[in-house]
Structure formats: C-alpha cells, structure tokens
C-alpha cells in the first residue's frame, strides 16, 4: 500500500504542462461602453421632423374627435328610451369614442418621445442625496433642460393639441353623469321609468307557453319531473327584429320546471298559479338582469351565473344567497282544453333588476 501511495504522489508531482501549451489568463470583465449614436431620420431631415410634428398634433386632435363622438353617442342613443338597440349602440359608440380618445393620446405621446424629443445618451453618476441650497437651482435647471429637449415650449401646435386632447378626454365621463339626474317624464311618461318599462311584458291571458327559440307550444304532459324548459310567449317567435323581437324577449323569457306537488308547500307558494307541480318564473335575475338559467334538480335551486344569486324554486323562488334583492317574479299558468300550458295573465310585478326599488 505504501508503494502505491508513493507512486501516485510521484505521478502527481511530476505532471507539468508541456512547453508547447499556452496558459490562458482571464482578464477582468470591462463595463461595456455605449454603442455608437445613430441619428434618427427626424434629426437628419427637416421634412421628416415636420411630418412627425404633424402626426403628433393630428393624433391629439383625433383624440378630441373621439371624446366628442362619445358625447354625441350618449345623446344620439339615449338609454332612457328603453329600446334595446339604443342601449346597445349607446354602449358601443361611447366605448369606441373613449377608446379612440385615450389610444390617440397614448400613441401621440410615444411618437413624440421617439421622433421629436432630443435624442441624447448620457450617464448620470450616483452621488450622495442631501439637501443643499443649490438643489432648487438644479431642479429649475433640469426642468428648463427638459422643456428645451422636448420642444414643449416652442412647439405650439403639439402643446395646444395635447392640452385640447387631455381636456376633451374627461368630458365624456362628465357627460355620463347626466344619467344620474332626475328624469323629466312630461314628454314621455314611460321612457326612462324603469317601473313602467318592466311592469308589463308580452304575456297575456290564454297565451301559450312555447319553447325558446322555436316557438313550439308546450304540453303539460311533456314536462317531466325534474325537467326545465326555456320558454317564450308563442306569438313572440313570429316577430321580426324590426318589430321588437329582442326587446320583447328580454322581458318575457321564462324558465319552466316541474316538481312533485308535495315539494311545493302552500305557505310559501301560490299553488293556484301552478299546474300539477309545474311552475314558471322569470329568467331575468332581480339583481342586474342576467339570465338565470342553471337549475339544480335535487335542491330545486336556480343559480344566476353572473353574481351567484340563488333562488329556491320550491319556496316561491325566494333569494337564498347572493346580491339579488327580491324573488323572481312568477308567471301564473294553467292548461287549456288541448292540454297546452298557457298563461293566466302577465306578471303581476315588474321583472328584472330591482334598482328602481331604491327610490
């Protein structure tokens, strides 16, 4: 063993790099210098600078146009009219106008900084931060330098365009506050009155319940235990969109379910509004109007997918969870001589969101 250790030690000590090999020596990493400065086209070509300036202030005034368009859309498509098309176009064009206003400001600011402001690289060494009398003078000088490099003080078109765009961008938001003002009902007592708009739907006495969207009438015998049907008034399927199909459907949609009659206690249900365990409730959530379409057969609960309000069908569709303020309105139903389900009348209370109750 001792001879083996001596041999290994001799081999280790005797190994040396050959004279023909160069030994690499690592140099310390140097801080890379700034790359060579590349002049922009706007720095070399006065015509390019003029085009960039025109682009920036044009974008600012395009932002002003977007703000104005949003305000025009607010008045051109008044949501107080109660028409679904007005509500749709109101949201669409106000959103597009505000988006154009803000996007144009952002693009203009970026293009201004990249193509027009002074393009100089510099290194600012760190130094101790402490208050001195010379600090104020240095701050003033830095603002003066920034103003000179940005061209803010001498490029009046860009400056004025920026001021106009920023001022106009807040006007659509101010305009929207008009919707919070009291409504004058002297000209149209229904428009803008949520109670009047939601109190009456297309349902009427003797009107058959039909499948949505085919309009096929529903027989009571076809409604099996535990099933749920999406229902509309039978005449609705014959309306065109120009005749108000969407507006009427938005208020008249109903969910039809069948429970065992013993699962409907008389103290919490209007049994004379049901037929052999079949009940019909408005699909429009009483929170903000989302469609309540998820039915749990075992628990008899209806779930609104938007904000998780839950309604107990076995107990008058009362609210058992979530932000909804009142039970779903019930549609009184019965059957006609041919066995088809029909409405006894319209809803006896307004359908949809309950925000109007806060008055």
From TrEMBL:
Chief location category: membrane
Topology within the bilayer: Multi-pass membrane protein
Domain of life: Bacteria
InterPro entries assigned: QcrA_N (IPR045603), Rieske_2Fe-2S (IPR017941), Rieske_2Fe-2S_sf (IPR036922), Rieske_Fe-S_prot (IPR014349), Rieske_Fe-S_prot_C (IPR005805)
Transmembrane segments: 59-77, 89-110
Keyword Disulfide bond found: yes
Keywords recorded for this protein, A-Z: 2Fe-2S, Cell membrane, Disulfide bond, Electron transport, Iron, Iron-sulfur, Membrane, Metal-binding, Oxidoreductase, Respiratory chain, Transmembrane, Transmembrane helix, Transport
Gene3D superfamilies (alphabetical): Rieske [2Fe-2S] iron-sulphur domain
Occurrences of domain Rieske (ranges): 251-342
Function: Iron-sulfur subunit of the cytochrome bc1 complex, an essential component of the respiratory electron transport chain required for ATP synthesis. The bc1 complex catalyzes the oxidation of menaquinol and the reduction of cytochrome c in the respiratory chain. The bc1 complex operates through a Q-cycle mechanism that couples electron transfer to generation of the proton gradient that drives ATP synthesis.
PANTHER family hit by this protein: CYTOCHROME B-C1 COMPLEX SUBUNIT RIESKE, MITOCHONDRIAL
Family: Belongs to the Rieske iron-sulfur protein family.
Record protein name field: Cytochrome bc1 complex Rieske iron-sulfur subunit
């Amino acid at each position: 063993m001792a001879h083996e250790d001596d041999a290994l030690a001799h081999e280790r000590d005797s190994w040396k790099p050959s004279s023909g090999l160069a030994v690499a020596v690592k140099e310390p990493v140097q801080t890379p210098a700034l790359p060579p400065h590349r002049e922009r086209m706007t720095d070399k070509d006065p015509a390019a600078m003029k085009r960039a300036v025109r682009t920036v202030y044009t974008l600012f005034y395009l932002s002003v146009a977007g703000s104005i368009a949003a305000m025009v859309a607010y008045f051109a498509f008044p949501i107080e009219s109660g028409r679904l098309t007005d509500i749709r176009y109101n949201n669409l064009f106000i959103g597009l106008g505000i988006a154009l206003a803000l996007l144009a400001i952002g693009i203009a600011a970026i293009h201004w900084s990249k193509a027009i402001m002074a393009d100089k690289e510099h290194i600012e060494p760190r130094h101790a931060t402490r208050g001195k009398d010379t600090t104020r003078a240095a701050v003033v000088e830095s603002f003066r330098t920034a103003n000179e490099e940005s061209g803010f003080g001498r490029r009046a078109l860009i400056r004025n365009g920026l001021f106009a765009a920023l001022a106009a961008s807040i006007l659509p938001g101010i305009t929207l506050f008009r919707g919070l003002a009291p409504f004058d009902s002297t000209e149209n007592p229904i428009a803008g009155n949520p109670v009047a708009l939601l109190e009456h739907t297309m349902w009427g006495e003797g009107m058959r319940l039909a499948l949505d969207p085919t309009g096929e009438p529903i027989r009571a015998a076809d409604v099996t235990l535990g099933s749920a049907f999406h229902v509309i008034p039978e005449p609705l399927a014959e309306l065109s969109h120009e005749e108000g199909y969407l507006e009427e459907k938005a208020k008249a949609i109903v969910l039809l379910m069948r429970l065992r009659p013993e699962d409907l206690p008389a103290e919490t249900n209007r049994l004379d509004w049901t037929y052999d365990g079949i009940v019909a409730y408005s699909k429009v959530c009483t929170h903000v109007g989302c469609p309540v379409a998820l039915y749990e057969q075992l628990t008899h609960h209806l779930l609104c997918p938007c904000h998780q309000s839950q309604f107990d069908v076995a107990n008058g569709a009362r609210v058992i969870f979530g932000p909804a303020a009142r039970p779903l309105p019930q549609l009184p139903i019965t059957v006609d001589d041919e066995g088809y389900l029909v409405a006894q009348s319209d809803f006896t209370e307004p359908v949809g969101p309950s925000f109007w109750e806060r008055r």
